[in-house]
Every structure is written in structure tokens, then in C-alpha cells.
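quick one, 159 residues, struct below
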Amino acid sequence: MKHVKLLVASLLMALPLQGFAEEGVRLLLKDGSKVEYALSRHPKLVFGDTSVTLLVADGEKRTFPLESVQRLTFCDVSTGIAAVKGSSDISVRTTADGVHVSGLPAHDIVYIFSVDGKVVASGCAGNACSDISLRLPTTAPAIYILQTKSGYSLKFVKR
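---
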């Protein structure tokens, strides 16, 4: 009787594992269609600037524009895609004592962080002018991270 209880308990513990065996990646597209791959096929998601690519272990590859994806679900954890940012025209040029940022939206705020996370410079683009020049605290070569209030982030090297 003791062995039967152990066997029943083992089977009951294994049942939930069977339910999760076929979970995986699911894309719900805005046209209502679904694309699903089980974890057993080892799906990988690769996000580009304007698309998401699903790669599967057997070599299958499918690419979808980000604008067409409404929801992404991985193992029953779901996330919606609220908006897709377009490509940025922001450019950064280092100068002798700082950095010049161009292509910003009007009134955009720029923060420059050192690699240890401290804000080393910040400023705001003007009304009509989408350019801003900021002084950096040192003229020594360093790596910085630029982040704008409008949501763009990039890394640059001061040489």
C-alpha cells in the first residue's frame, strides 16, 4: 500500500510537468492569426529595429514587422507591444571639451551618464533648434551613455 501511495504521488507530481511540456513562444498578430512554437523546438526571438525574427532549432526562420505583432507570450507570460519607435536621426559628435547632439525633437531633454551610472551632463533642446552641445567633466577618453527624455539611448566613446 505504501508503494501505491508513492506511485500515485509521483504521478500526480509529474502531471503538471506534462502540461508545461508544450508551452513555448506565441505571437498574436494584429490580423488575428497566431504563430506558436513549442519549447521542444528551441525557439529564439531576435529583435531588430523594425522586425522580430523567430528562429527554430530545425532551421525554420520567420520574420514579422513589429507593427504587426500585438502580443508576445512566452510560457504563458504575456506582454503587449504598445508602440514601436521609428528609427532615430539622432547623431552624436564628440568635441574637444564635450559632445554635440543633433536631430533631437524640440524641448527634448538629454542626459549623459558615465559607465558607473552617474549623470555627468544634461541639457534641453530649444524650440526650433534640435541641436545641443554639452560639456563633459573630463577631456580624458571615456565611454558614456546618452539617454533622451523621448526614449532614445545610445553609447558613445569620447576619445
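Residues 147 and 156 are 11 Å apart (CA to CA).
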